[in-house]
């Protein structure tokens, strides 16, 4: 049995187990079997030489997606169907006139992804397993969007998460209150 058949069997089993949970939280809580199955049997996408490895969305940044515009991502749809979506756009939000009201998330990494897929295989709003040869295997919540194009279905994924900060180096010094003695100030 080849790797694709094993992975597809795991996906079909997991999707039946999950029964397409209506919320992302339920999906993530109840579909850990899917992630474990993919980790055990890496998916090889359509004859690619290297296996696709599971990656955390925390390790993927906007620049990685920008480099993949106009390339195909394979999505595991209902009943394990493999659906190709093309990444057509990576976009950052326009500065808002009310940006002073949004200071709490001003340091966040904010961007959206637009995917284009076939009208024959529409996807509902949900969290799906995506695979890409250059990025790996990861889950993204997508929403169908309306676009003035009658030939394709379009989907959007929106990211607003804490931005990438340089690592903080913590000094090994012990900080003492004024008047308190420590081993470093004795």
Describe the structure.
The chain has 186 residues and is an alpha+beta fold. It contains 4 helices and 6 strands, in the order ααααββββββ. Strands 1-2-3-6-5-4 form a 6-stranded antiparallel β-barrel. A hairpin with a 3-residue loop joins strand 4 and strand 5 (136-145). Helix 1 runs antiparallel to helix 3. The longest helix is centred in the first third of the chain and has 16 residues, at 3-18.
Structure summary, number of beta strands: 6
First-last Cα distance: 69 Å
- Percent of residues in helices comes to 10-25%
Poorly predicted regions: 1-6, 16-20, 36-49, 165-186
- The number of helical segments is 4
Brief descriptors of the model:
disordered N terminus; 186 residues; 6-stranded antiparallel β-barrel; disordered C terminus; 20% helix; alpha+beta
Write the layout of secondary structure elements.
Layout: H1 3-18, H2 24-30, H3 32-40, H4 62-66, E1 72-76, E2 82-91, E3 108-118, E4 126-132, E5 136-145, E6 152-162
Antiparallel strand pairs: 1-2, 1-4, 2-3, 3-6, 4-5, 5-6
Helix pairs in contact: 1-3
